[in-house]
Request: fold
Amino acid sequence: MNVSKKEKILETAIKIIDEEGFSALSMKRVGELVGITEPAVYRYFKSKENLINEIFTKIISIHKSITKKYSDTEDELLKIEEILTSQLEYYEKNREITAIIFSLDAFSYSPTIKENITKIMKEREFLMVSLIRKAQGKGIIKKINPHHITKMIAGSIMLLVVSWRTENYSFSLIKRGKELIDSIKSIIKEEESA
Reply:
């Protein structure tokens, strides 16, 4: 199998979703933009759903690698900050992927895709909640429901990325992200560890 052609198909599909949404994605359109026939696209991906699932598999592996990168860090608050910063850096370098990650259309596209997105969200929530609980046990983070803190963080990051996209990437996502993370830290940190 020609890996570079498969990657080109994936990149093209991501670009179509980014620019025009999930509804504009078709195997025929992908083939036209890649410069191959529609049947040739089907040799790499058996269906449109299979193609989209492959995109999500790629996203999941990237997020897992970001999380593993900081698995040895002892300071849970620093670990949360570094994971979030790394994600924002990835989004800034791969802005088209944010159209997929933060798209509500993806949830309604197919049950398998909804399942994949839900899996990513649950894994991320489990990680964040466990880090927050450990930090609370050390007296670093206030005794606020860790699920609520996680949703506050996730919602804030999502709103920041959506604002960045709607403002045509006119500001540094990393810079604003660091400012946002600092604000969140000032809200959730115990006074003694400030």
Remarks:
- The mean pLDDT is 87.
- The chain has two domains: 1-46, 56-193.
- The CA atoms of residues 128 and 150 lie 6 Å apart.
